[in-house]
């Protein structure tokens, strides 16, 4: 049973005996804040955006297992960069899914700028992510345009007012969506002298209207080589005054320690320096070999002779294994129902977790990426199942078996094959 009170950032009463670990699985960012510099990792530096290594989801689980063994007081696993979780949604969602599966009693937490969060609202709720922090520095595009260098959405880059306006609209929708799903939401506001220090009360008022639970006013950290690198860091007295005013609208977090993206331990006793070696060692481990623990191959077939179904069209997958003379059909497994977004493909990866490959006539980019990450290699081909199985088990190339993508049915998801099958 999850105890939502056991989050040391949201509940200062437990900060002496409940800790957190940040898993640095999200290196990319989709915006540029004028105070951010993620280029440096100084071993003595503690600030957001800094991490000694980046982990894949499976590496993150191996690392987490070791951390939890040594530090059982950790109650929260979070993703806080070093970029933004939803500029790296595949890594983020897979890491959360693996944690929830392996450690059902851990609280799950995320810190994001909010730009790319909307498509994952339901997925987060399904995984019982309980605490989310959104950094909102302005509630007018005019002030926001002084804080953000650019905002990238899909492949388009926005600047100035248009960038700040897009980011703000997404943030407001994300916060409302998180609250509608019952998550606890904290707002981080970076206080930047001469830019937004008088704007914090309007931010607090707007966030309160949306139902946010807590506001964390953080003094800007003047990072070298950034547009705000020469600004003075706000004095503690000025921060206290801002918190007092903003506190009229929202409860204030006053114990933030501005953690690294690979922080470990209690807030006031960060152990990331002593875990640096383990973190970097985990980041260098290889993924399991293609066939390790995966004796079977899954096949999408209409009649059981040919590979002739698009991944999203298959209601069932045939599971094949090697036999004395050729191959044997072991069983059929039901495919997860459509309509779960990317979680449908994570669920399929779970269904096929003992399969080294899945043979399909075609599939979209999103399921392909998810299945690959989960260790099930998707193979696009057309022709007899036996030919595909022979080549898979012999470790041979399947390039010559690849069918044409054109002419496939759109029944699975309404998108053209290869267009991103969600
Ligand atoms: Fe840096 Fe975070 Fe801003 Fe991205 S959202 S630019 S990682 S501070
Ligand atoms: Fe908690 Fe602040 Fe550290 Fe985030 S940066 S984990 S809010 S103490």
Structure description:
This protein is of the alpha/beta class and 422 residues long. The protein has two domains: 4-283, TIM Barrel, CATH 3.20.20.70; 289-401, 2-Layer Sandwich (Nucleotidyltransferase, domain 5). It is 29% helix and 21% strand. It has helices at residues 57-70, 89-102, 121-126, 141-144, 160-180, 200-210, 236-246, 272-283, 342-351, 365-374, 385-394, and strands spanning 19-22, 31-33, 74-79, 107-112, 131-135, 148-153, 156-158, 184-191, 214-219, 264-266, 269-270, 296-299, 306-307, 316-323, 326-334, 355-360, 377-380, 383-384. An eight-stranded mixed sheet has the order 9-8-5-4-3-1-10-11. The protein has a five-stranded mixed sheet with strand order 15-14-12-16-17, with helices on both faces. A three-stranded antiparallel sheet has the order 2-6-7. Strand 10 and strand 11 (269-270) form a beta hairpin. Helix 1 crosses helix 2 (89-102), helix 1 (57-70) packs antiparallel against helix 8 (272-283) and helix 9 (342-351) runs parallel beside helix 10. The chain is elongated and about 80 Å long. 46% of the residues are buried. The model is unreliable at 40-46 and 404-422 (pLDDT under 50). Bound molecules: iron/sulfur cluster (SF4) (2 copies).
Instruction: Determine the oligomeric state from the structure.
Output: single chain
Enumerate the spans where pLDDT stays under 50 for 5 or more consecutive residues: 40-46, 404-422
Shape: elongated
**What is the beta-strand fraction?**
15-25%
């Amino acid at each position: 049973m999850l105890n939502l009170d056991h989050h040391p950032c949201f509940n200062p009463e437990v900060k002496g005996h409940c800790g957190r670990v940040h898993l640095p699985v999200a290196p990319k960012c989709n915006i540029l804040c004028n105070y951010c510099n993620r280029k440096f990792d100084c071993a003595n530096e503690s600030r957001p955006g800094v991490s000694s290594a980046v982990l894949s989801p499976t590496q993150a689980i191996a690392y987490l297992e070791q951390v939890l063994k040594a530090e059982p007081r950790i109650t929260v696993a979070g993703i806080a960069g070093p970029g933004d979780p939803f500029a790296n949604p595949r890594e983020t969602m897979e890491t959360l899914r693996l944690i929830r599966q392996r450690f059902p009693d851990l609280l799950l937490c995320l810190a994001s700028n909010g730009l790319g969060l909307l498509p994952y609202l339901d997925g987060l709720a399904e995984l019982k992510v309980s605490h989310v922090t959104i950094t909102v520095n302005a509630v007018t595009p005019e002030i926001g345009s002084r804080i953000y260098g650019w905002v990238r959405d899909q492949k388009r880059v926005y600047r100035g007012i248009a960038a700040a306006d897009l980011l703000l609209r997404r943030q407001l929708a994300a916060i409302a969506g998180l609250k509608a799903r019952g998550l606890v939401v904290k707002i981080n506001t970076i206080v930047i002298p001469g830019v937004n220090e008088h704007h914090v009360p309007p931010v607090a008022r707007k966030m309160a209207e949306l139902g946010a639970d807590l506001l964390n006013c953080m003094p800007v950290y003047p990072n070298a080589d950034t547009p705000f690198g020469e600004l003075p860091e706000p004095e503690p007295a000025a921060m206290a005054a801002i918190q007092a005013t903003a506190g009229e609208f929202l409860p204030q977090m006053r114990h933030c320690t501005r953690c690294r993206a690979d922080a470990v331990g209690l807030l006031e006793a960060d152990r990331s320096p002593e875990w640096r070696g383990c973190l970097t060692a985990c980041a260098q481990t290889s993924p399991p070999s293609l066939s390790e623990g995966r004796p079977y191959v899954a096949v999408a077939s209409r009649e059981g002779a040919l590979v002739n179904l698009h991944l999203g069209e298959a209601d069932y997958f045939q599971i094949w294994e090697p036999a004395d003379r050729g191959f044997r059909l072991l069983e059929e497994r039901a495919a997860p129902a459509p309509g779960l977004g990317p979680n449908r493909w994570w669920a399929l990866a779970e269904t096929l977790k003992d399969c080294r490959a899945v043979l399909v006539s075609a599939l979209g980019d999103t399921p392909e990426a998810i299945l690959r990450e989960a260790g099930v290699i998707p193979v696009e081909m057309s022709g007899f199942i036996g030919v595909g199985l022979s080549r898979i088990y012999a470790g041979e190339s399947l390039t010559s078996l690849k069918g044409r993508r054109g002419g496939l049915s759109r029944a699975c998801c309404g998108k053209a094959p290869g267009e991103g099958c969600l």
